[in-house]
Amino acid sequence: MFLTTLLDRHAILGNVSVNSKRQALQMVADVAARQLGLEASDVHQALLEREKLGSTGVGMGVAVPHAALPGLDRMHGIFVRLDAPVDYDSIDDMPVDLIFALLAPESAGTEHLRALAKVSRLLRQKDLREQLRLIDKPDALYAILTNMADTNAA
Question: Most buried residue among 27, 48, 54, 151 by CB atoms closer than 10 A?
Fold first, then answer.
């Protein structure tokens, strides 16, 4: 239930080719612009500013970039599966190929933190990460993410 309200099927990209963390975050910003009507440059800048505070690469090839942005009325998720891992300055020094970005309203407060915790907890599951790495079709990625989230919520 949690991810079905947070993540839209059209906010998922699979098999994305980028050469850097900066390009990966630009992909997230481009999806946000298309899906949420935000300016890609504003989203990209907000994500880069957050990265200056410390990398959102949480380990095991996963990053959870996040930012609070004006113009949003609720939390939104964007999932990107890279075709090849990129250096992300992760806490375990491993490159990242799975990115789950969270974009929150400026007033989100603790809701933002709770969503970060849930997404991070979900993506710590080895079997889920392995499944996500085997598939590149957005609909299949959505099904895996939401089914796993529902299974773990029960």
Answer: 27
